[in-house]
């Protein structure tokens, strides 16, 4: 299967690979797995007191499309509010990266990772 140029670019030069200290209260961690293939994605967001995502990092054990999807979303969410980041759809990721149908679940993994990280943040900051 041919990967699109954007997938190859993100795969070869992934943005924001790494991890933050998960005990830092401003860090939200989302860890998700794809049942279809067993790939795992960890996405972390650094969220300031105004609810703005200041930074993001990821580690993905998976295919090129999953790595490209996570790399892309770390760029997209920076500067966004939590509410805006929650609106990000896997279809936008798939479209940007020109993912073929069999790779759509890789972009769903990235959307799920954002949602999981935001859920973690809300849990940490509840009450
Ligand atoms: Fe996920 Fe290939 S099926 S890495
Ligand atoms: Fe399963 Fe890409 S995440 S093949």
From TrEMBL:
It comes from the Bacteria. It comes from Pseudidiomarina andamanensis. Transmembrane segments: none annotated. PANTHER family: IRON-SULFUR CLUSTER ASSEMBLY ENZYME NIFU HOMOLOG. Residues 2-125 form the NIF system FeS cluster assembly NifU N-terminal domain. Belongs to the NifU family. GO terms for cellular component: cytoplasm. NCBIfam families: iscU. One of its GO terms (molecular function) is iron-sulfur cluster binding. GO terms for biological process: iron-sulfur cluster assembly. Signal peptide: none annotated. A scaffold on which IscS assembles Fe-S clusters. It is likely that Fe-S cluster coordination is flexible as the role of this complex is to build and then hand off Fe-S clusters. InterPro entries: ISCU, NIF_FeS_clus_asmbl_NifU_N. This is Iron-sulfur cluster assembly scaffold protein IscU.
